[in-house]
C-alpha cells in the first residue's frame, strides 16, 4: 500500500486541524497539502509545505526593477518575460517541501539534482518494508537499438513473463535473506547497516525533498521529458500537476518556454535561415555532425 496506517492517520489529523495564517497562500496548492498522490505501484508524492505563489515571483522581480513597473506590465506578462529571458532569482523566491516514496534506483537518478535539501529514510536505523517496484508488462522492454541508456519495444509473451517472474522472485528472496540476517531469534543478528546491502535497487525508500521553484523547473525540464526513464518521469508528471495548481502563471510559461520549446545551436539557426531563403540544405553542407543533424530535423518535424 502507498501509505501506512500511521501515515494516513497523520494526514487525516493534519487536514482536520487547519491553522489561521497571515502569510500568502496559493489556493491551488492548499488543496494538495498533506494529500498523497500515488505514483508507480507503491510510491507517492505529497506536499508537506510550500512558500510563495506567482505574486512572490513578480514581487521579487519588481524589487530588482524598482518602483513603477507594476502599471507597465501585468503579473503573467512579467513572469513570461522572466522565463523567456532565463532569469532565475525571482523563481527562487518560491519553495516546496515534498514527502516522496520511490524505488532506490529512481532515488539514485533523482539525487543527481544536487540543488535541493534532502533527508532520506535511514536503513541503518530502521527496517525497510517488503515493498518493491515491479513494472507492469507494458513497461518491460528490450534495450533500445538507438539509445544506449534507454529502452526499446516491450517484451512479449514468455520472455516478458519470465523477466517479471525473475524480478518478483529475486526481490522476495533478497528480502527473506535480509530478514534472516537481522533476526535476533536465536542469534545476535547482523547490523542493519550491513544487511541492507543485500536488498535490490527496486526496494522502496522515502525522503523529504525541499527545493526552490527555479531548480524544480530544471528538474522537471529534464525528468518530464519524453527521453527520461519512465519511472522517474512518472514522478515528474505528478509534480507537474502540483506545480500547475501552485503557480499557474509560472507553470504555463515553463510549458511554453522550456517543456514545449527547442534550443537551436548557432549552426542550426544559420541552416534555418538558409532554408527560409530557399537554399537546399543537407547534412553534408550544414556544418553539423550526423547526430546533430538528426536532432535538427526532429525539431523541424522532418
UniProtKB/TrEMBL annotation:
GO terms for molecular function: flavin adenine dinucleotide binding; NADPH binding; thymidylate synthase (FAD) activity; thymidylate synthase activity. Keywords: FAD, Flavoprotein, Methyltransferase, NADP, Nucleotide biosynthesis, Transferase. Pathway: Pyrimidine metabolism; dTTP biosynthesis. One of its GO terms (biological process) is dTTP biosynthetic process. The active site is at residue 223. DUMP binds at residues 109-112, 120-124, 196, 223. It comes from the Bacteria. FAD binds at residues 89, 112-114, 120, 212-214, 218. It catalyses: dUMP + (6R)-5,10-methylene-5,6,7,8-tetrahydrofolate + NADPH + H(+) = dTMP + (6S)-5,6,7,8-tetrahydrofolate + NADP(+). It is an enzyme of class 2 (transferase). Binds 4 FAD per tetramer. Each FAD binding site is formed by three monomers. Its EC number is 2.1.1.148. Its cofactor is FAD. Gene3D superfamilies: 3.30.1360.170. Catalyzes the reductive methylation of 2'-deoxyuridine-5'-monophosphate (dUMP) to 2'-deoxythymidine-5'-monophosphate (dTMP) while utilizing 5,10-methylenetetrahydrofolate (mTHF) as the methyl donor, and NADPH and FADH(2) as the reductant. Homotetramer. Belongs to the thymidylate synthase ThyX family. This is Flavin-dependent thymidylate synthase. It comes from Pukyongiella litopenaei. The gene is thyX.
Amino acid at each position: 500500500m502507498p501509505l501506512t496506517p500511521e501515515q494516513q492517520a497523520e494526514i487525516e489529523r493534519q487536514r482536520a486541524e487547519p491553522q489561521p495564517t497571515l502569510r500568502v497562500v496559493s489556493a491551488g496548492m492548499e488543496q494538495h497539502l498533506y494529500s498523497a498522490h500515488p505514483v508507480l505501484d507503491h510510491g507517492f508524492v505529497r506536499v508537506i509545505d510550500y512558500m510563495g505563489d506567482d505574486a512572490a515571483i513578480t514581487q521579487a522581480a519588481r524589487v530588482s526593477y524598482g518602483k513603477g513597473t507594476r502599471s507597465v506590465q501585468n503579473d503573467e506578462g512579467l513572469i513570461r518575460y522572466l522565463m523567456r529571458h532565463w532569469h532565475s532569482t525571482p523563481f527562487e523566491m518560491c519553495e516546496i517541501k515534498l514527502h516522496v516514496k520511490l524505488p532506490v534506483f529512481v532515488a539514485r537518478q533523482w539525487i543527481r539534482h544536487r540543488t535541493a535539501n534532502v533527508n532520506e529514510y535511514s536503513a541503518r536505523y530502521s527496517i525497510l518494508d517488503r515493498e518493491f517496484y515491479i513494472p507492469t508488462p507494458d513497461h518491460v522492454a528490450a534495450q533500445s537499438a538507438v539509445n544506449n541508456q534507454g529502452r526499446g519495444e516491450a517484451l512479449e509473451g514468455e520472455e516478458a513473463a519470465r523477466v517479471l517472474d525473475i524480478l518478483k522472485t529475486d526481490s522476495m528472496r533478497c528480502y527473506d535473506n535480509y530478514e534472516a540476517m537481522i533476526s535476533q531469534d536465536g542469534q545476535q543478528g547482523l547490523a542493519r547497516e550491513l544487511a541492507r546491502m543485500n536488498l535490490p535497487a527496486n526496494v522502496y525508500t522515502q525522503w523529504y525533498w525541499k527545493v526552490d521553484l527555479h531548480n524544480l523547473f530544471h528538474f522537471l525540464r529534464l525528468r518530464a521529458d519524453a527521453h527520461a526513464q519512465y519511472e522517474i518521469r512518472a514522478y515528474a508528471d505528478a509534480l507537474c500537476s502540483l506545480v500547475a495548481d501552485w503557480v499557474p502563471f509560472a507553470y504555463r510559461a515553463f510549458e511554453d518556454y522550456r517543456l514545449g520549446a527547442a534550443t537551436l545551436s548557432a549552426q542550426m539557426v544559420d541552416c534555418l535561415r538558409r532554408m527560409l531563403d530557399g537554399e537546399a540544405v543537407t547534412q553534408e553542407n550544414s556544418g553539423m555532425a550526423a547526430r546533430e543533424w538528426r536532432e535538427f530535423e526532429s525539431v523541424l518535424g522532418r
